[in-house]
Amino acid sequence: MQPTISGTVLLAFIAYSTWAAFANSDYFARPYISPFYSPCLASICGSARAGSQHVSAPHVGIFGPWWAISPAILVLIFPLGFRLTCYYYRRAYYRAFWQSPPACAVGEPHKRYSGETRFPLILQNFHRYFFYFGLIFNAILTYDAVVSFRSTTDKWGHMGLGTVVLVVNAALLWLYSLSCHSCRHIVGGRLKHFSRHPIRFKFWGVVTKLNSRHMQLAWASLIFVALTDLYVRLVASGTITDPRFF
Amino acid sequence: MTYDLKLRVWRGDASGGALRDYTVPVDDGEVVLDAVHHLQAREAGDMAVRWNCKAGKCGSCSAEINGRPRLMCLARLSTFERDEPITITPLRTFPVVKDLVTDVGFNYRKAAEVPAFSPSAAQPQAPFKMAQIDVERSQEFRKCIECFLCQDTCHVIRDHEDNKAAFSGPRFFIRYAELEMHPNDDGDRRQLVQQERGLGLCNITKCCSEVCPEHIKITDNGIIPMKERVADVRYDPVRFFRRRQGNPS
After folding, report:
1. CB-CB under 8 Å, A125 with B227
2. How many CA atoms lie within 13 A of A228 on its CB side?
3. Virtual torsion, Cα A176, A177, A181, A182, nearest 10 deg
4. Residues whose CB is less than 8 angstroms from the CB of residue A135 and which lie 6 or more positions away in sequence, other chains included
């Protein structure tokens, strides 16, 4: 049952995020930007479609006007790679999609099995690099969450439901990244002597506690990042109005 | 209270066999191994079953109960439906000797392949002084009772007999992890465990951790840390460059 649920949620996320990434519209409603489109590396974000209007979304124009398709394509490979090579998701999709195995002690349908020893699955060993890139993205999305405390006229002291959504999204992404097995290894797991590195041991202890919730954080952050995009999309398209607290 | 329990037990040997149905009287509070003993005493005196401590500490009575690898002595009858038969089969990954007894020699051959503890030059002989936090880390792996349920449930060899030569299995990956994490061990088994012991075949689906009666976090605390250590030495260009510059990995 669990592989079926995992597979269904993953498929739903893949379908939604693919559509959202290629939509190339309704990703910015000042001061909110969709996490799928941040950072925007293409100059076409300067004239982003939002409902029937065009708005200027924050961007760095590394990719000039010649980049005509969705700018989300430029950045999504990194969070996608991080999740694709994540030890938890590997377990989930090997079971749900590849049936290797479908469940514990249940026979798998494949005649041959080479695990993660050959291309492309040997690339799973590069998880740590996606983790590093993921931290950069987390910092950017945290910045996006901070600037969402500004009003539509760039004045500080604003807070709407979108602000809460962006802050929760950034927090969940940090928790998911910091609970990662590669992070656990990097902060202290690779040591032979915990006793000689008390500070790293403390960090390792904290990450170990988070790591025990890695599965829950993986699902929570995955679902919430899609909901965050959906919220910004609904506000940008004018379908809903962002409720303001102050 | 005594009641009649339906058992379906695999009977046979290396040449073949089949499930046979039995009914045995059992009491509340008993475990599957008790039921098997009642069966041996009453109806099937020639039935082969390996057991020893009956307390979940010797790892002898491993079997597959309703398709799930478990210790028979820890499988309480109260957790099963009384009306439903309980099916007991031998461990599927290992060759059957007779009835519920399998030949687990594969595991002893893999154990013999593990390079021994290699003490550092600074402290070449016991007693080794270790801080408690360093002891605790590998102590988790020492809880292993060698029931080989993790080896049995691992699909790498359960479903692919041809992988047995190249794959040590989760029980021995935690042994490698234990040695690698030992503060006074100077050995480096990272290349060995990846290239010759089949660590790369593991796709971390965590079945080994799910069946471990000692609740050892085989995957999270043993196999994944080993995979990350292997990544340090084989898949990390930054560390590769540092090694080329003369810095230790």
Report:
1. yes
2. 28
3. 170
4. A177
Q: Could you give the CA distance from residue A86 to residue B76 in angstroms, rounded to a whole number? A: 36
Selecting from A105, A121, A194 the residue whose C-beta is nearest the C-beta of B64 gives: A105
pLDDT at B242: 75
Minimum CA–CA partner of B204 in chain A: A91
Judging by beta carbons within 10 Å of its beta carbon (0-12, 13-18, 19+), is residue A231 exposed, middle or buried? buried
pLDDT, tens only, A195-204: 999 999 999 9
**What are the strands, taking DSSP E only, across chain B?**
2-13, 16-27, 62-65, 68-71, 86-89, 96-98, 101-102
**Distance separating alpha carbons of residues B10 and A236, to the nearest angstrom:** 65
**Extents of the domains making up chain B:** 2-102, 105-244
pLDDT at A164: 97
The two tokens of residue B200 are 């790369």
Chain B residues whose CB is inside 8 A of the A101 CB are: 155, 159, 205, 207
Domain B2-102 is of which CATH architecture? Roll (3.10)
Question: A8 to chain B, minimum CA–CA distance in Å?
Answer: 18
Q: Considering only CB atoms, which chain A residues are within 8 Å of B205?
A: 91, 94-95, 100-101, 104
Question: Distance from A122 to chain B by nearest Cα, in Å?
Answer: 8
State pLDDT tens for residues A135-183.
999 999 999 999 999 998 889 999 999 999 999 999 999 999 999 999 9
C-alpha span between A213 and A62 (Å, rounded)? 38
Question: Are the Cβ atoms of A125 and B133 closer than 8 angstroms?
Answer: no
- Residue pLDDT, tens place only, B51-105: 999 999 999 999 999 999 999 999 999 999 999 999 999 999 999 999 999 999 9
CA gap B39, B70 in Å, rounded: 19
- Report ipTM for this prediction: 0.92
In this prediction, residue B121 carries a pLDDT of 85
CB pairs under 8 A between A and B: 112
Cα distances (Å, whole numbers) of residue A69 to A48, A59, B35, B46: 12, 15, 68, 74
How far from A40 is each of A18, A133, A146, A149, CA to CA, in Å? 17, 15, 17, 20
What is the reported pLDDT for B214? Answer: 97
Spatial distance between the Cα atoms of B193 and B172, rounded to a whole number of angstroms: 10
B105-244 CATH fold:
Fumarate Reductase Iron-sulfur Protein; Chain B, domain 2 (1.10.1060)
Task: Note whether B54 and B79 are within 8 A (CB).
Answer: no
Provide the residue count of chain A. Answer: 246
Cβ burial of A133 (10 Å; 0-12, 13-18, 19+) is middle
Element (H, E) at A50: strand A48-50
Each domain of chain A, given as residue ranges in start order, spans 2-106+122-236
- pLDDT tens profile A158-167: 999 999 999 9
Provide the residue type at A24 as one letter: N
